[in-house]
């Protein structure tokens, strides 16, 4: 995992920050991995309210509290915890988002700072700040979106994405 000094400062200063090639995965995460996780763990699965008409498999699925399901995910969580030192909050979770087709989420704001790491496929995040910006995440890319920044996901391909949210305050 790699964060350059200017990227660290940008996140520390509560800015939307894109990090290309943040991490390399040593194994392939695919939809078979998702199936194995769901068979092995008793996890809550929600579906999001995607834009437009969507049949069940066209929706985006959120698998809740998944930081423990893969060694690589635990390492990412531990790295972010140590680097950014947020105050602990019971609501801090790493979730997996899965979409089997290209799909667009509704624009929304999160109550927490979010670190998004793309695991499989490609996704574009549209961020609505003073200036509207687009960030294309491929496998291993990271996007930090501070709390209350309006954004939406546009799935360029079927995808698997990690989202780690910090509800507490950064203490560094």
Could you explain how this protein is built, in words?
With 172 residues, the protein is an alpha+beta fold. The chain has one domain: Cupin (Jelly Rolls), CATH 2.60.120.650. Helix content is 19%, strand content 32%. It has helices at residues 5-12, 31-40, 71-84, and strands at residues 17-19, 45-47, 60-63, 93-99, 113-120, 123-128, 132-137, 142-145, 150-155, 159-166. The strands form 2 sheets. A 7-stranded antiparallel beta sheet has the order 1-8-5-10-4-3-2, with helices on one face. Strand 6 (123-128) and strand 7 form a beta hairpin. The radius of gyration is 15 Å and the shape is globular. The relative contact order is 0.24.
| Mean pLDDT score | 92
CATH top level class name: Mainly Beta
Order of helices and strands: HEHEEHEEEEEEE
Principal-axes geometry comes out as: globular
Count, helices: 3
Q: Kindly state the number of beta strands.
A: 10
CATH homology group: Cupin
Residue stretches low in confidence (pLDDT < 50, at least 5 long) are: none
Q: Structural class of the helices, strands and pairings?
A: alpha+beta
Please outline what is shown here.
The longest helix has 14 residues, at 71-84.
